[in-house]
Amino acid sequence: VKKVSQWMESANKKDISNIISFFYEDATENECSALHRLACEARDMHYNGRVYFRGLIEFTNYCKNDCYYCGIQRSNQNITRYRLSEEEILKSCERGYRLGFRTFVLQGGEDMYFTDSRLCSIISKIKEKYPDCAVTLSAGERSRESYKNLYDAGADRYLLRHETANEEHYRKLHPAELSLENRKRCLYDLKEIGFQVGAGFMVDSPFQTYETLAEDFIFLRELKPHMIGIGPFIPHKDTRFAGYYNPSSQHTLILLSLIRIMLPKTLLPSTTALGTVDKNGQRKGFAAGANVIMPNLSPMEHRGDYTLYDNKLYTGLESSEQLAALVRNIESMGLTPDFSRGDYVDMQNAA
Ligand code: SAM
User: Where does [4Fe-4S] cluster bind (predicted)?
Assistant: First the structure.
């Protein structure tokens, strides 16, 4: 594992694009299985087979942005917009806490209603009530000053996928008012402020190539985020990429393993999108080296409106039996479900 990791740490763009194209196009099933096994070994060196649970709260689907791939883009008139009140968010946390969760992930569109003062009030109330919990935010691009305010209010982690590290590709996925430069600035600011930071991208997004993927790997290697979110791009019917292709799990599984081997300590979720394109996708994600799962704690009445893509999987916890089934499923793979805060390995004692 160490040898392959070291090679990935210094590989150049051409080498990385070659290795990805090999596994996408030429590798046999046995070769792919060997890759996945190596990735699990890399994970288990640091996390010893633990799979961390995070409770996901989708707190708003209002968004000021118009990302071309995303179902909650501002120009989509066909969805019902909602935002949770502070009380509803705290109620979701309460339910999650009772179920055993010790990390809450607040994710939403870029909704200007959530000013610093509103978000800070929510964060500090969660931390006051549940001092043993981590709060992760995923609320898009904000100023450095705003990130600092959120951090000072008690937020621990921030997820902001870079989406693609290639300028031209970025412009094909986003309108001109959004820039890769600002996205990267946000990620470096977040890291400097002290957040545990997550970057990432969609697999098989429109116009993605082996070269753009190699640039993603090199960017991740430079940024060294604590978390990396990758999952299949899934077309949404109300976007320009409707019907773009029929997504599958295979490429995501390969990239999960390669990322795990390159950055063995990273926290790597087996995403809802992976479970949406393949009914065993999340299980396969763990067998490919992932070590995080984020079941949905959002109130049932709004779940159907947080539609980033078509046919989104309901990994809902409508009942505690469902959570118990998920736990058993993970245990049956020889892994250990872990409901602790689940910080990045180097920060587990510091937190
Ligand atoms: N607004 C915040 C942001 O931009 O980071 C958080 C919410 S955003 C909807 C979360 C992630 O959903 C994005 O980073 C993107 O990678 C993913 N996403 C959006 N549309 C998707 C699609 N059609 N298929 C798969 N993932 C998608």
Answer: 63, 67, 70
Is residue 53 assigned to a domain?
Answer: yes
Residue positions forming the annotated binding site: 63, 67, 70, 138, 163, 183
- Any domain includes 237: yes
Residue 344 lies in a domain: no
Give distance in angstroms: CA of 207 to centre of ligand 1: 17
Q: What is the CA radius of gyration of the chain?
A: 19
Residue type, 289: G
Any bridge partners for residue 310, and if so which? none
Q: Ligand 1 centre from 127 Cα, in Å? A: 26
How far is the C-alpha of 40 from the C-alpha of 260, rounded, in Å? 8
Helix (H) or strand (E) holding 96, with range, is: helix 86-99
253-308 pLDDT, tens digit each: 999 999 999 999 999 999 999 999 999 999 999 999 999 999 999 998 998 899 89
Check which CATH number belongs to the domain holding 127 and give it.
3.20.20.70
List pLDDT tens digits, range 193-216. Answer: 999 999 999 999 999 999 999 999
Q: How many domains does the chain have?
A: 1
Give, for 71, the enclosing helix (H) or strand (E): none
351 versus 229: the higher-pLDDT residue is 229
**Nearest-atom index, ligand 1, CA of 139:** 2
Structure tokens that stand for 315 in this block:
């990994």
Contacts of 351 (CB under 8 A, 6+ apart): 134, 156, 341, 343
ipTM reported for the complex, 2 dp: 0.99
Atom 26, ligand 1: which residue's CA is nearest?
233
Read off the pLDDT of residues 131-161 as tens digits, 9 standing for 90 and up. Answer: 999 999 999 999 999 999 999 999 999 999 9
- The closest alpha carbon to 43, from 298, 257, 231, 320, belongs to 257
Q: In the structure, which protein residues have their CB atom closer than 6 angstroms to any atom of ligand 1?
A: 69-70, 72, 107, 109-110, 138, 140, 160-161, 163, 202, 231, 233-234, 236, 273, 308-309
